[in-house]
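Format is chain and fold; as here:
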Amino acid sequence: MNIPIKIQIPQVWSGSFEKNEWNSINYIVGPNGTGKSLFSNQLFTQLIGKGYKTRLLSAERLSGFEKENYTYFTNSSLNDGLNLSRLSNYKDYGQRYGLSTYAFIILRERLDVRIKIEALLSDLFRKTIRLVEEGGFLKPKMQNIDGGEEYGLKEQECHGMKEIISLLTFLYDDSNNCLIFDEPELHLHPQFQSFFLNEIRKIAGDPVSEPGKKLFFIITHSPYFIDIRNLEDLQHIIVCHNHQMPTCIQEGDLDSQDKYVLKRFLPRFNTHHKQFFFSPNPVFVEGYTDQQIITLLFEKTGQNIAASGSSVIDVGGKDELAVFYKLCNKLGINCRIIADYDAFYRGKLREEVFSNNNDIKQAFINDGFGDDVSKSIGELQKISRTISDELMTQSSSDPDVAKVITRLVELYRDSEKNNSQILDVIHLSLYRLKDKIVGTIPQKKDDINSYLVRHQKYIECIKSGGIYIIPSGELEHFFKASTIDYLNITQKDRLFEAERDSIMNTYDAKQIKVDYQDILPLLTESIPHIEVDMIKHIRFTIMDWVQKVQNAVERGEVKDIASLKNNARVNYNLYNQIIECNDGNFMIWEDGSFVCTIRIRKNVIGEEKVLKFTDKTTTREIKFE
């Protein structure tokens, strides 16, 4: 549908977001505080201006229909129900502010809509609804079909039931052909979120060319409402950001191979995968076993990745990693990728990274590798092949090297067909047996050193684009619960289950850090960290208190420890919640000079800190010991 829309929200981002083509169901997502509700308000106004009969249902739609009347904060005029003499006012305010009150007027006036709601309540929830008019008021009442007294919907029904009734009423009401739902998931069980979305799909369409169909805009934080069935659906998800204009996938952003990979992936696109629309810093991995182990390691070592807006999402393979990386770049989502060593040599990820990320390309050039990435990596693989050519002709008394040689001999029986496997064997072996291999083929020492140095530089280059390659293998190579043959990993499911159980049954974070010291630094580096610096904020608070003490001493109001603790300006009773100053810690002399020692309570910052200050101490000099 061609509907030119132009949104400007200068208090959130600069510039104008413009979009002309829309789907029958459109999504607006993004973290809190990114302007989604403001976006919906402007969208509402512009759609009405373009002739669409539009209704916006706001996130505060149940205002007035709360269970309790909290008179200290607000006084609802709906305690007795809807005043029948003011129905036109309720309609006006309901339309203007997106409130649910209008839904019950629709149920009163539209028998066809009410029958649908009654049928739903009866068959799904075993409840009935009755609109009672008494004393000049309209009051919705409900009753359980299986028995019990009738009760007021406002006072005794749950929020979820109120939500489903009002949402469906507006959905079934044909007086509007365009609906904007702000957080329709509020108070709804995931099952009923999916149910409501299915109801939306039944009537979604172009109301201009198909009378009876409706245009939908859904502002949501719930992956249950993101329903992507084809590539066109993907183009109508708008992602809002902090201090950045909203983004969406445009026609032409995806090439034919991207579309092929996505089309194959969409049937597996579940609520777990959809997290990346809501996470500002998603971390993508290939398989579910990687996702489970990495998430467990973060959890066991106390790394709360959710605090930085991260989540670990498995996508199924190297080509999928490349497509999700591209999607995130187009949508302005700062994604990270953790991939096995072979993703650097094979699959679409390398191509995507180097062709569309200027930071990585520049880092590659700055390290002296030139601007032809494929050529440079091809040269690296040639070096690897010359090493393998030499090594497979040798013999060794060292069992580790002998095993490598035996494997190479097997692969060289059809070296052209097995070229990738040959390169893998050499790569993995050089990282583990470098000195032994150099001892076996000393004439290749320079090539071996060159290969490892260049490979490490390549790996560091692509980190600038958020790609974290496990340089010496794959995650299974770092498992501790089982003996791993790095040249031939089999029964991965069994290995995963053993490793998962082992990690879950280890409760000592220090032990986890020791066991996985070879892989944890890379995993930790892959996620952005947000650390709360309590020391800094405690220092700011203490700075204020020190000045209070200095001023009170200068005024002659504080002469000893007792007056320090009782002085109203110093307010020791309040600050004593975070500091402690005991007898003997405050010394004052006749000239007004003093020395005070305080201790920061351990329960505030996790460790005890000491601060000593005098009448001459400036705020810049305040430091904890």
Notes: The chain is about 45% helix and 15% strand. The radius of gyration is 33 Å. The first helix runs from residue 36 to 49.
